[in-house]
Amino acid sequence: MPTLRLGDTAPDFTQESTQGPIHFHQWLGDSWGVLFSHPKDFTPVCTTELGYTAKLADDFRKRNTKVLAVSVDPLDSHNGWVGDIEETSGVKVNFPILADPDRKVATLYDMIHPNANDTLTVRSVYVIDPKKKIRLVITYPASTGRNFDEILRVIDSLQLTDQHSVATPVNWKQGEDVIVAPSIQDPEVLKQKFPKGIRAVKPYLRYTPQPGR
Ligand code: BEZ
């Protein structure tokens, strides 16, 4: 299975989950999606990650984004672990966790890196857009919990830059100035697209207030 790259179509699959069978593309519908793997149930880092993700339910909903976790552990293990996640985080786990003991999803998404561990999934994150294209790939080691605020930040950037001719600078957050696409040079087009004005630091580095706010 070749490595999945940005712009590739996210592989479709059907797999069991804590909320019943998931037909991935059908389940995504017109939403954005976050598919993320964790190495193992009943482990400390994973417990904090899934609890925090549950706390972000409203943030993902606001961004029209569905969240789906996966590991190679079976369904009965996931079902038992969900109780611990809810107890330790204080919130309901409102997203499904795929049970992937046959490694169908792990294989399709290249989530097992044998030189790190030959049976457990690494901490992968795929962000998928409503056209089912892969827009972000992140891989973290088992010992390092991910930053889910960063995943929200990238979704904000992707949704903004898909709509406007802009890019987002280092450490950008909602509401901060953005970068005007260098390809736009026509002064009339610039005026029409960026009525709030442009601040040029260099000819190729031009800022404008975030459009649409
Ligand atoms: C954890 O989630 O704590 C973990 C999982 C697998 C290996 C190491 C840590």
Quaternary structure annotation: single chain
Largest sheet: 5 strands, mixed
Percent range of helical residues: 25-40%
Bound molecules: benzoic acid
Put the structure in a nutshell.
The protein is of the alpha+beta class. 31% of the residues lie in helices and 22% in strands.
Word description of this protein:
- The strands form three sheets. A five-stranded mixed β-sheet has the order 5-4-3-6-7. It has a four-stranded antiparallel β-sheet with strand order 8-9-11-10. Strands 1-2 form a two-stranded antiparallel ribbon.
- The relative contact order is 0.15.
- The model has no long low-confidence stretch (mean pLDDT 97).
- Strand 6 and strand 7 form a beta hairpin.
- The chain is α+β, with helices and mostly antiparallel strands.
- Helix 2 (44-55) crosses helix 4.
- The chain is elongated, with a radius of gyration of 19 Å.
- The chain has helices spanning 24-28, 44-55, 57-62, 75-89, 104-108, 148-163, 187-193, and strands spanning 14-15, 22-23, 32-37, 65-71, 97-99, 123-128, 134-140, 166-167, 178-180, 199-202, 205-208.
- Bound molecules: benzoic acid (BEZ).
